[in-house]
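Figure S7 source data.
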Amino acid sequence: MAFVSTTSVLFMLFILTSAKSIPNYIENRINLIESEVDMQLGSDVILNDDEKQANEILMHWKQKEIEESFRNPQHFNFSKHYFAYKNDIPKSKVYQIIKRMPKGAVLHVHSSLMLSADRLLNLTYEEHLYMCNDDGDLQFRFSEDTPKSPCSIDWVLLKDLRNLNGAKFDESLKEYLTLFSESDSVCSKTNDINSIWRKFEKVSNLVSQLIIYRPVTEKFFYEALIEFYEDNIQYIEIRSGLKTLYELNGTVHDKLYMPRLYREVAERFKRDHPDFVGVKLIVTRHRLKTDEEIRKTINMARQVKQELPSFFAGFDLVGQEDLGRPLSDILPFLAEAKNDLQYYFHGGETNWYGTSADENLFDAVLLGSKRIGHAYGLIKHPSLLMAVKQKDIALEVNVVSNVVLGLVHDVRNHPLATYLALGLPVVLSSDDPGVWGADPLSHDFYITFVGVASKRADLRLLKQLAINSIKYSTLNIQHKEILFRVFYSKWDVFIKQVLTMSATL
Ligand SMILES: [Zn+2]
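Tokens for the predicted zinc ion complex:
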């Protein structure tokens, strides 16, 4: 009788069982991956034949880009600072496709930081602009004569400075109008978030001084709309404080003048560009302001709503959440106005789990915020993740902003990857593209598509993100229909362009 050891029997059994179970395993693996892919944002989108063909072209280039980086991570751009690779983006075939794509709406952008530094620099060529340079702290003021406002050195006519210093003057002036610099260390990984924000707010304050002179306000806003329109954006919801505009002779306008003027410029832009659907305004106030100042702005927001109901969208508080007052601190005013004003609060733009900045997310949900700006920390709050899904609260995610303002260094680690995987109601936006030299939206779309979303995420994700931007806008049903019509007709043209591009790419 042949001797068969227990080990041999077990080995034989293992071989037989494995051979039988491997097909099941493979099937189970496919099913498991598919069930997860089905949850992803965009999985419900059904592509027609042309779109499927365009998707193949898009995915060919996306997979190529990712595979090359997967094998050579030392060349992978999205683990570097945005400034290190920003100028290389146009070389990407995926970007070239996304650039042509109609993107629907931008729902999270601060109006004073929409415009690129080059165009802002052009605005400094306007007559009567004076500058005060107090050891690198600049101030601007338009005036017929030397301005009376305080300047520790002397106000000097900018034109004279420019004539005196030649071309280099513009180069150095531009550095004050942007955070972007290839050599700049301020935004490097070693800098803390507060120092980055200090530089950001310095740029922001200087730009504000340039654009509160009424003739420049008009030019600035129209040019900002041109830049957004040229990036294939059909509608914008801007966030802005109610700034006091002035004239050359010193006349100062009341705070409601600015929204009236913005609306007029937006209407003129619409007339000049009939395929642009429009602009709405979310009134903001800095979160460091006193109770009284915030209460006044809430009341003024009510007045804007009454006077310009079709232009007014809602209210928000802005500024660095880590250092600013939390929503819970201003709760009495916010709770009182919650039935009059729709809220679009920034929330959780922080890495500090469990802090007041992080817990703004709870107050945003409880105060009925229609959308949440950034929602970066939301990933750490399972109950809030469920709440935003249930209540259909859109998350306005701004990836490039989060990199530049120091929240995340490698976009593969951005919580947006999970939000997309869970199919949460996400809209992509750009926050302050002018200040870091980004495209109004294309850079955020491209970096998200290749650097954040799954390698498997395809054209359906891009289409769903554009659809979401319209769905979660504050437009009424009738205007949403108009926007959808414009978007879909541009989408068809875009798909045809991709199909013809395949020959040239
Ligand atoms: Zn913002």
